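Recap from last week: sequence in, structure out.
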Amino acid sequence: MKLKHILVGLLGVVIVACAGFFAIAWKSAIAPITPPDRASFDQALVHKGAMLAAVGNCTACHTQPGGHSFAGGFALPTPFGTIYSSNITPDPETGIGAWSEAAFNRAMREGVSRDGKHLYPAFPFDHFTLVSDEDNKALYAFLMTRPPVKQTPPANELPFPLNVRLVLAGWKTLFFNEGAYQDVASESAEWNRGAYLVNGLGHCGACHTPRNALGAEKAGAHLAGGQAEGWTAFALDASSPAPVAWTQDSLYAYLRQGWHPDHGVTNGPMGEVTGNLGLLPDSDVHAIATYLASLMGTPSPERVQKGEEIRKQVSDSLALVSAPSPAADTPTGRGQAIYEAACATCHDGSRPLPFGGINFHLSTTINAPDAQNAINTVLFGLPAASGRQSAIMPGFAATMNDQQLADLLAYLRDNFAGKPAWADVASRAADTRNGKFQVSVRPSDGIERGPDNIGAQDQ
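Predicted structure tokens:
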């Protein structure tokens, strides 16, 4: 009888706990509105919203390659399945045309849609919650004045129970901290502006911070390096693998123009980021650089000296490591032959960046702990920008097999970074070709282009 009372008591506790969770998790719908007239929005506010949308890189996730801007349907691969971005044009049926400003603010601040559904954190509301009410107002004005597009995105491809949005309330309980950004009193106004842009609309941590098993950014690893769209997003803290240490000035130049002589040209998703940052005033880009430089800290005297040595040796066209040529029938020997035939013309040439190839002694990609960015770059290259001069690199997917790619990277690692070859390069290259790693390829101007369907190589 006593056991029965205990079980009944436990059942009651479970029922109460479930009821409490449901009460917290349930969100009411916000009544739809008639789409506001475009002329009702102040043009200065719309212009401000356009710049903020550029900071948020909204077009990258909410536009299919070759599709209508902001109409959604872009596939976002995650470890849990594929999520398709929503239509954020002002179409009242398939977009956000029926959303009031209050509904839009709730989505940004709380990660809840107009109809009360919890949003998946592929929409980075854990960052957007920091955005001020004033900036949300400008974003709303900008989006509601875009051309409406009637387009319903595909259904998300997620297994049970992840396809039940109510479980997201539990995720939020564990990992989500709601609230607008608060200035750090001990820091300058410029630093706070940079922190606001980086951690809020810029949501840099969504790519550059590692994630835990539940898909949340790891605590204590802010901007320590992550993964995004088939690319490694390098660490933006003191652990950056860049051979020459970043400075506030080099960060500013890289973000402002999309390249820097010590760090190369933006590639992968960063191409679109720097392309969009072109809409921002210099002061905001300076602020971002100020904040990021503070996270990276002051490099040690040894690292500064090493960077100066690399710069001088590159300038003098000297090899960083003097060593005899490797035996021809070794990975590095075969890789050297490939390098001299396919790469040296650009990467050992006299043309400076951004139109020449970076000297690999300076390459963060070759010095990185992970091979994926190097594999992507060799396979897909860097497509030309549209309508203007730009950096460009051919892809070698059709002319270089996986073992040749592995040999090339073994040589680059040994000769230019003085580091051992990465493991499993050939198998990772095969997986990349076959689409196991879904890689986004963009030119340096940031206009998204999907790689050709190159398929598996012939064996």
